[in-house]
Design goal:
single chain; alpha/beta; Rossmann fold; eight-stranded mixed beta sheet; 10 helices; 8 strands; globular; DNA_Partitioning_ATPase; EC 3.6.-.-; hydrolase activity; hydrolase
Length: 248
């Protein structure tokens, strides 16, 4: 079974898709056969790699899932594209428990050719995120360094605990990642200290800085590591990759 990392946070704008995309690219560059799954109806992970969203999402289509994997500009990285179809978004986001189980089985049964799989979730704790968590071996939660960083975490962690508590679950809490980090701001230091004091060792040592290159890279269909390899953001995602790979 591959290592399946779910990138999730119910709060939007925390760097979730940015982290999923750049971490997937970094892991692929490290030599793992990697799949990035775009479950967010905004499809930013798909367009951020320079590809086009599918007309129908593979998880609700009748075709075998493998037929929907797309090659990217990196030899070791494949993509399961997102879809902006309102019908598919509604079907995925409002899945019943039985349908969520079916989707999780469908997803997990098609991943054998990969070493690592990263799932980019929508900003919610709805059925779609729960389906992704049920398919994953671990969850990585990005948190923006701002006043409301801790807001909603209790609910997200409760959902994670519910999934972990299922008898057939292999989900573990992989870690918390501090994003949009500005060391010149006192608020950033306060959030950093508060999160590390509360969560301890599950918080990654690596932090992702505010860096224009990170925001610009998706418009060029690349990771920040390829777009601006000497930038602070690129170095941070390489360091995060090393830290994630060490936490096996």
């Amino acid at each position: 079974m591959p290592r399946v990392i779910c990138i999730a946070n119910q709060k939007g704008g925390v760097g979730k898709t940015t982290t999923a995309l750049n971490l997937a690219c970094a892991i692929a560059m490290a030599g793992d056969r990697t799949l990035l799954v775009d479950l967010d109806p905004q499809c930013n992970a798909t367009t951020g790699l320079g590809l086009i969203p599918d007309a129908r999402h593979a998880l609700v289509d009748s075709r075998p899932l493998r037929e929907s994997f797309k090659e990217t500009y990196l030899p070791n990285l494949s993509l399961l594209p997102g879809a902006r179809s309102f019908e598919d978004v509604d079907a995925l986001a409002n899945s019943s428990d039985s349908r969520s189980l079916m989707l999780a089985t469908h997803l997990s049964g098609s991943l054998g050719s990969f070493d690592s799989v990263l799932i980019d979730c929508p900003p919610s704790v709805g059925a779609l995120t729960r389906t992704a968590l049920a398919s994953a071996s671990e969850v990585l939660m990005p948190i923006q360094c701002e006043y409301f960083a801790m807001e909603g975490l209790t609910q997200m962690i409760e959902v994670i605990k519910q999934v972990i508590g299922r008898s057939n679950s292999r989900l573990q809490f992989g870690g918390i990642l501090l994003t949009m980090y500005d060391a010149t701001l006192e608020l950033t230091s306060e959030v950093d200290r508060e999160v590390r004091d509360f969560f301890g060792g599950i918080v990654y040592s690596t932090v992702i800085p505010r860096d224009a290159a990170v925001s610009e890279a998706p418009s060029h269909g690349q990771s920040v590591i390829d777009y601006a390899p000497r930038s602070r953001g690129a170095r941070a995602y390489v360091e995060l990759c090393q830290e994630v790979l060490e936490r096996v």
